């Protein structure tokens, strides 16, 4: 499920420019992700994000545990350092979220909403129009809130090496 929402968020970040949101060729940021369950228990994750508009990304979770989710635009690699496990997945060619997200609507102020597969995503932008927060409710009725900060944007795509996950050869590799 994490993989599915990572792909949706990547698409959100790079397909809303028609709606007045400023989207660079590439960006990197720190993030705080809070997941609040229906009983109001909160899990807080922290890490770094690097992405570009070629569907390449790397989410590096640093706290409370170390995990990386990377994609070269064709395959997704999930490295769970606690489990010493790597899972690989082929990106779904039919995953065309761009068309759905181009219908995102300006809600008010610096807030936008985007609907996809029965779920609504709320996107907040900073005064320059860059995305700074995304919130949604997942399949388990958790409220997920991702706040981006220390955002750096670039006019050109980043080198491919910035999107690679690294892991010891001793990790188990599972083809998904």
Automatic annotation (TrEMBL):
Pfam families linked to this entry: LolA
CDD domains on file: LolA
Highest taxon of source: Bacteria
Keyword match Lipoprotein: yes
UniProt keywords, alphabetically: Lipoprotein, Signal
Signal peptide: 1-20
InterPro entries on file: LolA/LolB/LppX, OM_lipoprot_carrier_LolA-like
KW Lipoprotein (keyword) present: yes
NCBIfam families linked: PRK00031.2-1
Cross-referenced PANTHER family: OUTER-MEMBRANE LIPOPROTEIN CARRIER PROTEIN
Protein name: Outer membrane lipoprotein carrier protein LolA
Organism: Nitratifractor salsuginis (strain DSM 16511 / JCM 12458 / E9I37-1)
């Amino acid at each position: 499920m994490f993989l599915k929402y990572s792909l949706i968020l990547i698409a959100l970040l790079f397909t809303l420019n028609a709606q007045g949101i400023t989207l660079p060729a590439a960006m990197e940021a720190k993030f705080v992700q809070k997941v609040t369950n229906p009983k109001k228990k909160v899990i807080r994750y922290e890490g770094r994000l690097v992405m570009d508009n070629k569907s390449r990304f790397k989410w590096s979770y640093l706290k409370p545990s170390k995990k990386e989710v990377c994609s070269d635009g064709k395959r997704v690699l999930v490295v769970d350092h606690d489990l010493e496990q790597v899972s690989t997945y082929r990106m779904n060619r039919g995953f065309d979220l761009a068309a759905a997200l181009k219908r995102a609507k300006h809600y008010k102020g610096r807030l936008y909403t985007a609907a996809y597969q029965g779920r609504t995503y709320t996107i907040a932008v900073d005064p320059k129009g860059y995305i700074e927060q995304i919130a949604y409710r997942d399949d388990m009725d958790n409220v997920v809130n991702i706040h981006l900060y220390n955002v750096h944007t670039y006019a050109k795509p980043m080198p491919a090496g910035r999107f690679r996950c690294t892991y010891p050869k001793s990790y188990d590799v599972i083809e998904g």
